[in-house]
Amino acid sequence: MQLTYRFDQANLKINEIDMGTDTEFEIQILNDGPLLRGIKEIHKAFDENKDYTDVMFYIYEHHQYKVIVRKDYYSDFVLALMKHKLLLSVEWV
């Protein structure tokens, strides 16, 4: 089974690239506000857990993020995006 998700394209850009053992997310928050606070909370949560290689954040200017997610943490990361309201819906297909 695979997760699919929807997001508000007027406020957020997400590009997902399969890198074999990892998935790379290119995320850009297009405005200040709740989505920006949400991505910062997600970063904090994964940064503070005990597994330092699960999700790696690279932060760029203009609210751009590159996030490298280990395959075994893919669903955790996508569900964190949903929890913090960066996604509108998530479903198994």
Q: Taking Cα atoms only, what radius of gyration do you get, to the nearest Å?
A: 12 Å
Order of helices and strands: EEEHEEHE
Strand order within the widest sheet? 2-3-5-4
Largest sheet: 4 strands, antiparallel
Shape, principal axes of CA atoms: globular
Please give the alpha-carbon distance between the first and last residues: 6 Å
Tell me the strand percentage band: 35-45%
How many DSSP H or I helices?
A: 2
Task: Say what the CATH topology is.
Answer: Alpha-Beta Plaits
Q: CATH class, anyone? A: Alpha Beta
Low-confidence stretches: none
Secondary-structure class: alpha+beta
Number of strands: 6
Number of structurally distinct domains: 1
CATH architecture: 2-Layer Sandwich
Helix content: 25-40%
Mean pLDDT across all residues, rounded?
95
Descriptive report:
The chain has 93 residues and is α+β, with helices and mostly antiparallel strands. It has one domain: Alpha-Beta Plaits. The protein has helices at 34-48, 74-83, and strands at residues 3-6, 12-18, 22-29, 55-60, 64-70, 89-92. A hairpin with a 3-residue loop joins β2 and β3.
Comma- or semicolon-separated keywords:
globular, 93 residues, Alpha-Beta Plaits, alpha+beta, 2 helices, 27% helix, two-stranded antiparallel sheet
What topology does this entry show?
Elements (H helix, E strand, L loop, with lengths): L2 E4 L5 E7 L3 E8 L4 H15 L6 E6 L3 E7 L3 H10 L5 E4 L1
Antiparallel strand pairs: 1-6, 2-3, 3-5, 4-5
